[in-house]
Every structure is written in C-alpha cells, then in structure tokens.
C-alpha cells in the first residue's frame, strides 16, 4: 500500500509530539485522520480543533467504522505503546497495514531531498532552526519537528514538498528507517541503554545511520565525534566554525567561517554554547539547498526558539523564569552553562523532574554531579512514561547523591509555594515528563506574586 492509496490513517499514541506532526500532515493532504492516546493534552486538543477525532480509552468501540476498513487504512503507532494494548493487537491481528512512526516518515520523505537531524541531544532545536532558515529563504519544505517551533507555533510546517526536514530519532533505532540526502550528528552520548545495552551499541547504530545517507549525500558532525564527515565547532578549526563570540543584551554576536563564505557579526538570540552549535549546523545544512550564506545568516538572527528549549517564560530586570526540556546529564550541564553565562551572579533555583526509571538508574552518578552545580535544587519524583518502577530507583536515592547547599525532594502540589518561599532571581524548570504542564501555573503565580511586591 502506497501513501496515495491510503484514505484513512489511525494513530495509536496520537498525542506524542512526533505522532501529532504526522497526524497534521495527513490531515492537510486530505486523508481521514483519527487516533487514541491515554491522556488529553494541549497537543491532542489542537488536533481536535483541526477536525481530528481523538479518544482516550483503549476501546475498539470508540474507533469509527471508517478506520476498520482494512484495505485503505494505515495504522501508525509509537514504540511506547504497551504490548497488551487492545486496539493495537486488533489491528495487527486483522491484517491491517501497521507501521511505526519512523517507517511512515521514511515513506513520506523518500522522494524528497531529505534533511535528517540526528544526535542524542539537540535534534529538536536544530531541526526547528533548519526549518526556519529554509522557510525564510523560500525553500519549498515539509518539516516534521519534535517540538513546537515558536516561529510558526507548530511542530509541522508545509511550505512545499521538494525538500523535507525530519528528526532522526535513535530511540528504538527509528532513524534506521530513513535515507537522507543531508544529515548531521550533534552528539552520541550514552542514552537509551534499555534499547542499546551500552554506549558501544548506541554508537554502532549511529554508524549504521551514516551508512543510510544517499550516494553523493553529505554528513555534518560536531567536531570531536568519532565519525568521518564535514565538521562544525566553536574556535576549533572546524570546516564550519564560529569565532570571536561576544554577548550583547542576551544575544550572541560572532563571526562564521565556512567553505562558502566568511561572515562577520552574525547574531543569534538563543542562550547556551550548545544552541550556538545547533544554529551553526542548521546553517551548514541549509546551505546545501542553495540558499545564499548572507540570507541564511540574516535568518539565524530572527529565530525565536522552541517551546521548552531554554524558553524564557518571564524575563524582567529583577526576575527570570526559564523552562527547558533537559532530561540527560549532558543537557543539564548545557542548561547550567547557559544560565551562568547569561545571568552571572544571580541566585538560581533549579527544579528537575527525572524522566524514566531506567535512565535515572543508568546515569544516577552523572545526574548527581550535574545537579550539584545548581546552588538550590527542588527535585520531583521520577516521571515513569512507558516504564514500570524499578526497585530502589527513586528520586530520594538520587537526592542523597547530590551535593548542593540547598536541595529538597518535593511534591508537585507543593512546588509553587516552595518557589515563592525561596524567591530566586532566576528560576529554571527542567525535565521531559509532565513538568511542562506545570509551567503555565507556575508562570501565572509568579506574575501575580511579583505584581504584589
């Protein structure tokens, strides 16, 4: 069954950030779209507003008969779906075309000039910057993003079908379904050890991904990674290199040296050296679509950001509130570096929600070291996502390993009152679980509190 032969697309796990982007795509190209997810979220509400049917109970009776037609229905599922899921097992057992999200992405993008962004960190920000650069320079693209771009307030962009931008996700080896023309690898830090077993297994999979790049394609790699490709870096002699960095009112000003052009006084507004690298490789990839270096540099300066990626919720002279998706020790280190560089000398309070029991177990000492950088820390319980609890793996176990002047394990219900009591200069919330749902509540209370002062 080809994409053109499909009339109906049913999603199991439709509320996921990547799944919802695919749902939007199929809706926009005229397919019937519906799906299941276990909880209602802002993402699922947005899909319903587009006319997509979504339900929240694993019950075949709630699936419209339209999607029970085996000959013209595609079922898309996320690897996070449990094996005993009733709807999933019905579709598998009754001869439906059932495919993972990554397989469908591969089908959609195989006839396009595909840009794929891979790496254990930075995929979403880099792909959003890349989509922004290509859009601003008039490139006809379709982009499937793993976050909500603040530039187009969506995780999906449809500006044409000649080029595509996708995140090449290493989880469940999903990126091995793609065959990009241009790819980048931002990092290969150990992660998803429940899938790969060890860091060597993860790195082997990245090398397999490199082997899937089309003939005459191009690979960009962050300088220092054990891969052959065109390098990018900061002050290190890379093929694409940022030099002479200055900070001006919270923005970076720098020179950009590349094979195509040497550009002076380029501006980029997202804090953190990790984001500078993300912007640099997005620029390097976008050049491959034929856009002029000067126009791409101008577009870098207008990139707004990605929701939950070092996203400023409140930014006043006397108080700052930042929200970030950081859920790995390397990402926590990057967030700390950005806070320290942009807000030196300020009293910083960090709130962190660990994500997954297995990740907490596998990197507990690294988490403890990273979180010990923050002078004041509030730690939430572990967000389980797809996992069952692991005996002995708790937030208290992690907290006991953290060396911090002020640290505290806290319930979400007590979070706002504790933040108000500590009254920091800078607040940063971090994590990949449901802490993002708390951010609007925290923001509202902080605004009210500061108005009263």
Low-confidence parts, pLDDT < 50 over ≥5 residues? none
CATH topology of the largest domain: UDP-N-acetylmuramoyl-L-alanine:D-glutamate ligase
- Taken from the alpha-carbon principal axes, the silhouette is globular
Overall average residue pLDDT:
93
Largest sheet: 10 strands, mixed
In total, how many beta strands?
Answer: 21
Strand line-up across the major sheet: 8-7-9-6-10-11-12-13-14-15
CATH class of the largest domain: Alpha Beta
Counting structural domains, the number is 3
Structure description:
By secondary structure, this protein is of the alpha/beta class. The protein has three domains: 3-101, NAD(P)-binding Rossmann-like Domain (Rossmann fold), CATH 3.40.50; 110-300, Mur-like, catalytic domain (UDP-N-acetylmuramoyl-L-alanine:D-glutamate ligase, 3-Layer(aba) Sandwich); 311-452, Protein-Tyrosine Phosphatase, Chain A (Alpha-Beta Complex), CATH 3.90.190.20. Helix content is 32%, strand content 25%. It is built from 15 helices and 21 strands. The protein has helices spanning 17-28, 42-49, 86-93, 101-109, 123-136, 193-196, 199-210, 273-287, 293-300, 329-342, 357-362, 364-371, 395-401, 415-422, 439-452; strands at 8-12, 32-36, 53-55, 73-77, 97-100, 113-118, 141-149, 154-158, 163-168, 182-185, 218-222, 230-234, 240-248, 251-257, 262-268, 311-315, 320-324, 348-352, 376-379, 406-409, 426-430. It has a ten-stranded mixed beta sheet with strand order 8-7-9-6-10-11-12-13-14-15, sandwiched between helices. Strands 16-17-21-18-19-20 form a six-stranded mixed beta sheet, with helices on both faces. A five-stranded parallel beta sheet has the order 3-2-1-4-5, with helices on both faces. Strand 14 (251-257) and strand 15 form a beta hairpin. Helix 5 (123-136) packs across helix 8, helix 5 packs across helix 9 (293-300) and helix 10 packs parallel to helix 12. The longest helix is centred in the middle third of the chain and has 15 residues, at 273-287. The chain is globular, with a radius of gyration of 22 Å. The mean pLDDT is 93.
